[in-house]
Structure formats: C-alpha cells, structure tokens
Amino acid sequence: MIRPEDADLHPVDPALTTWTETIGFWFAIPEERIYGNVYVLARPNVGAAISSINVVQGMNRYPFTVDLTDPQMHCPCPDSMLDFQLQSGLRVEVPRPPNHYRFRYDNIAGSCSFDMTLDGAMPAWDVNDPAENPLLAADADHGLGDAWAGGHLDFLGRVRGELTLRGRSYRIDAMGGMDRSWGTRTELGRAAIAYIHIPFDEDLGIHLVTGVELVGGAAVYGPLRFGYVHEGDKVLGIVDATVTGSQQGLTPMHNEIAVTDTTGRTLTVRGTAIAAAPWYTFSPSYVTFQSLMHYELDGRHGYGLQADTYGIEFLADRTSRHGARTAAAFGPGI
Questions:
Q1: What domains, with CATH codes, occur in the chain?
Q2: Residue 40 contacts by C-beta under 8 Å, 6 or more apart in sequence?
Q3: 312: number of Cβ within 10 Å
Q4: Strand 112-120 with 234-248, pairing
C-alpha cells in the first residue's frame, strides 16, 4: 500500500550512492495535439538531481524539431520531494500526498512556462503490493532491472492549468498521469519496456507495462509486467494483456491493446498517434519513443501516452555493427 509519506524522500543508508528517487509526470492538450513531460531524478546521497522537461506538438521524427527540450543534468538535490524548486525553474509541490501535485515552471531562457495541478482520480497504485498487483507472486521482474524494485507508485488524474510556449498560451484541462519510484538504480540501459497510460476520464482508465523486443526492425510487445484498470471507486489488477501495433522507426503509430482484469473481464482499446517524438534527455542511459494516442473503447474517446523506452545499451546490442543480436533484431525496417 502506498502511504502519504511515500511522496517524500525515503530514509536510506547514506553509503548507497545509487539510491534514486524519481517523479515522472505527463500532461496533454489533445485539441492542440500537445503533450509534455516533467521528469525529476534525484540522488540524495550524491547531492545531485536531473530536471528534464519537454513539450511536444504534432509529429516529430527527430529530437531537434521538438518545441521545448530542457534537460538540466546536475541540479543540487532537494532536501524534500514535497515542496522543492530546482535551478531549472521547476517547482513541485504536493499539497495532498501521495496523489495530488502542483507543477510550476519558468524556463530560464524564457521560452516556456506553466502552472498546473494534477488531481488523482484514484489512489496511488503500488506495483510491489501483492494485494494490488496480482502478477507480483508469479514474476517480480518489473522490466527495468532495479529501477522500480525498491518502490513504485502510479496513478491517473485530471490536469488543469496554463501553458505558455514560445509566446503562445494554452489552457490545460485533460487527463494525465504520473509515476514515482525509489530505490537503488544502476543505469545499465540493458532493458526495454512499453509504459502505457490510457485515461478516458476520472471514472475509467487503464495502465500497463510490457516488455519490448525488436524483431526484423519492428517492436514486439511482451511479456506483461504489471498494470491496472481503474473504474469508478475500484482499481483492479491486470492478469493478462496483449499489445500489438505499428511503428514509424521506433515511434508508436497505432496500437490495439486487450487487458483482462482480476474479475475476468477483457477490455480492448485501439489507439492512433496524434503527436510524437523521441525523448533522449530524461536519462543518458535511455531513449523513449513517445506518442500521444487517441483511444477508442466502445464509443468512448480518450487520450493517453505510450512511451516505448529503450536502454541505449539494449539498442546497441540489437542495432550496432558489433551487436550480438543485430542480425535478428535490426532487419530491413528500422
């Protein structure tokens, strides 16, 4: 079970220099084909933090066409995760932990600012609690090595606020999502996962994480690592899922996702990308090919983020001249 204190830094042996605490938040303005990310990676025992923010409009094949990319890689680490400000111009407050946040940002170059709140539509979900995650007893591998093994929460919610991007202002009122993790984290970049949020409204949303493999230049999704269905006042763990889709390069363009929850019910959603970009700057060890997807489910419409996240070393072993798996993974289509 996630507790309010899990929103703050966790007590830890000061000798653990790989101890890491993260915040990963995304928001969207679907009518403008805009999405954005706020990512904080703090290493309190070495006194440093990463602040990475990006804002994307429309389809972007290359990182240099993205509307805003602001990675500040060596910020002083905050003393608390409940109310802090980084030298990047980002301020984070948690007025009602663990699932209500406020994010404010004034880009130090003057090209972007925002003020938005994330109000959780559900309790923060605990991937490491077998009472919440039915797959935990069978497979404790969350897909990213030790990155999520210490602690990991996830929730969906409503985002409201304002964004100003290079002189143009937008109102934000749409669903978004967030995760947070803590534990030792060795940045080897040898894994790959698809991180998928599908919020329709405050009463219905889906989250799942699967593995990813490259076969003949295309992404193949599986196995299911964990996930939930949020509906009304219930959060049900996912016991089975299939994900198929197509990509442009490694960017998700279309998907079809079927999930089965603990009641035995199966939901099938279909998504099409309306905005996308590669994001290289949240961690030097990974790249995530992200797409804001328009989803349909039995006449309902929603917008959510699919983030296919690849370790750079994972890709090197499958795409480089020296890669042991390049012949099978690279293929003609990548």
A1: 19-329 (2.40.370.10)
A2: 22, 23, 49, 50, 51, 52, 86, 90, 92
A3: 17
A4: unpaired
pTM over 0.85: yes
Cα 4 from Cα 82, distance rounded (Å): 10
Tokens of 100: 């209500």
What gap in Å lies between CA 35 and CA 232, rounded to an integer?
25
Report the half-sphere exposure of 134 (CA within 13 A, side-chain side): 16
* Lowest-confidence segment of 19-23, 169-173, 322-326 by average pLDDT: 322-326
The residues near 115 (Cβ < 8 Å, ≥ 6 apart) are 102, 103, 104, 105, 161, 162
- When pLDDT is averaged across residues 149-173 and rounded to a whole number, the result is 96
Q: How far apart are CA 320 and CA 102, in angstroms?
A: 42
Q: Span 30-34, mean pLDDT?
A: 98
Measured CA angle at 253 (ends 276, 291), to 5 deg: 30
CB atoms near residue 116 (< 10 Å): 21
* Pairing verdict, β 100-106 and 112-120: antiparallel
127: which DSSP letter? Answer: T
- AA identity, residue 30: P
Lowest mean pLDDT across 70-74, 135-139, 189-193 = 135-139
CA distance 195 to 255: 13
